[in-house]
Amino acid sequence: MAGKFIISEDEQGGYRFALVANNGQTLAVGSGFPSKMACVNGIETVRRNAPEAVIEDLSASER
């Protein structure tokens, strides 16, 4: 298994998702969504777009 998406309710009554690796490390967190369906749609958007995503580095310095 490549990890899992976890949906939770936030303090404002909305929903958020987290992508969690098998070792329990949180890899990404979605912003707040007004409904659970909107949250699920956000997860599906990540699933569709992430395999082709490039890294765009806008940081000012190299570390």
TrEMBL record:
InterPro entries: DUF1508, UPF0339_domain, YegP-like_sf
Pfam family, one: DUF1508
Chain ranges of the DUF1508 domain: 10-57
Alphabetical list of PANTHER family matching this protein: PTHR40606, UPF0339 PROTEIN YEGP
Designated name of the protein: DUF1508 domain-containing protein
